Amino acid sequence: MKRYAFSCCLLLASLFLALPCAAARDGVTVAVQGGYQCEYGVDIPFTRSARTSDYTFAIYAGNTPEVQANVTVTTDSPVVVHLPLRYDPAGPSTHTLQVTAHVAAGRQGLDREAALSRTFTTAPTCGCPAGTAGAFYVGDGSEGAPFLVASTDQLQHIGSTAHLQKKSSFLQTGHLDFEGQTVESIGSLNSHFLGHYNGNGYTVSNLNLQNADANGLFGYLQEATIENLGVVGATVPSGGAGGPIAGVAENSTIRRCWTKGCTVSQTTFGGHAGGLVGLLYSSSVVQDCYVQNITATADTDAAGLLGMTGEVGAAVSASNCYVDGMTLSGMSCGATIGCWFAPSGSYPTLYCLDSVSYPLYGRNNQTSGVTGTKVPALTPSYLSGFDFTGVWEMKDGLPRLQVEQPLS
């Protein structure tokens, strides 16, 4: 009796976001067992034996398989077998791949099953060398396959020269806590963040930022999008413009974001401090955001939401936002906007309570327009423009974004 043998090329270097489970590739059919699913996984280059087309692929992280799949290969050419695999997106992890070849129909008694195993370690998918602090292990940075951000190191790595201005997309996978760390803003006046960051409903908490010219989790945004992100308990120290989400936003979009319990101090000459953004200008958009319990201090403009907005020739847009709880100090203080500097514009759907002692805006260069509305209660009946079907919900007596993930 002959011993069954097969050749295979196990080059485990390519790790990508997954195709849908059991998706067909030319000459390959993959049927994952047990309903196992993951949005990412491993791509395995493979060449079948000429004597069989049927295999079982199994990946182990320990003594039991993490995922198993029945694989049929109908071509003699090299193929790629994709398997979903829940490996750690925050860093390298080691696994064992076992491929078992099954005896083809009509060859019983001539061949027998055989198995081959190889050990592999996941590698960065972002082009950074293995061992780089904060390197990304899932995704390619495209809109369809964003880099997954699963650690504080990875969030900080966005600010590196390898990624800051590459217009990449990022997706946060869980709450991130910077307790005990002092970190830099992502982007500055001289080097802007140009990408798309989706917080996925999670928070970044206990940020203690270094002094910077533009200060916030994101220092300077240019043609960027920040969405579905909360910042909790941040300390934003002195600079030119500061806010928990962003210091400066130029021609950028910020939507479905929130901040809670943050302190912003922009005491440098001419500084602007906001509970969300320090300086919003050049056709930027803020939509469906809220600020709770902000302390903002500035040499010039301090506000519950936006320190300063607008510029000559380019109006900004801000809508469907509210501020609840604020302590402001500066030359010009406003519950919603500190300095309203724009050729035109009206923001009636920015809200705060009637009981707030600060004016809706601190100063402006306009003779007409509305920079917000004071209301008796932050409830649906008073919050005109808010979508309580698809975006907002009432929770613990206040409007909350439906995208928010629970902290526990």
From TrEMBL:
Keywords: Signal. Gene3D superfamilies: 2.160.20.110. Residues 1-23 form the signal peptide. This is GLUG domain-containing protein. It comes from Harryflintia acetispora.
